[in-house]
Amino acid sequence: MNAPKNLLSINGGGLYGVGVANWLAKLHPAWKPDYLAGTSVGSIVAALIAVGKPYRVIAGMFNGELPKKIFTKPKFPKNILPTGYTYDNAEAKKALKEQFGDIMVKECQIPITIVAWNYSKKKAKVFTHKHNSEYLLRDAVLASMSAPTFFPICVLKDPSKTEDPEQFGDGGVCGNDPSMAGIATMREEGIMISNIRCLSLATSGWPIPKNIDPGSKIAWLPVIIDTLTLGNADFSSYCAGQILGGGYMQVIPKLPQGDLDDFKLVPKIRDGWMAVDAKPAIDFLAGNPPKITHLS
Length: 296
Hints:
alpha/beta, globular
């Protein structure tokens, strides 16, 4: 385990993942990471890479119908009933099954780490080729992308146990930046810290600085999701950077700020990512120290 290993870590971020999917096509088509980590939309991109999809094919999928299948409004009668979520996951389930079939997490071509939140046990649920590995890959991805208020709670039964099904939600609740989870997976494999290189892709860019003055409990609602996801992502990024030092590089482009499901922003999100020069990241993955930590 002395040879350097590359980890590609992809954050959650809804439709901002379209930008990441397009930017990855800038990498050499033959390059593949040794390990992958993904949360929410990042888990979709990472899983597609893990089963051997070429970067340009993944970009084409995100430029095509895949985002619309994921963000599909409920049909009658759900569309006239109070549900607690904005989008149905029926079409998303079909799309995930179409791409991943019945592949288990442990059967991926590249070892993958997927982060989700276990509502039932109030703790993180991490899927790897060693832990929770018998779950279907599509189910692990569905759990990781089931953002509260956006999608229904994901209910899954552990295929290796006789326990009752459990409720899962978006990994952004606990690990929107899955870098630390990916590093933990690699350390469990016996890979030394000095031999880990992590390229972290922060899907949604820098948020607009703003002060808040809620005034009431209800006024907190608009900032709760950002507080949960951006807070833990920034903490994970900080820890990964401090632990790996020159073995860590994060790409955070300047992007338009808005809702994670706003399709009108997609062209600008794509353009923002495509404006980022990939050469510093390519050089880093080849073993050179990062010249800068954040690209923009």
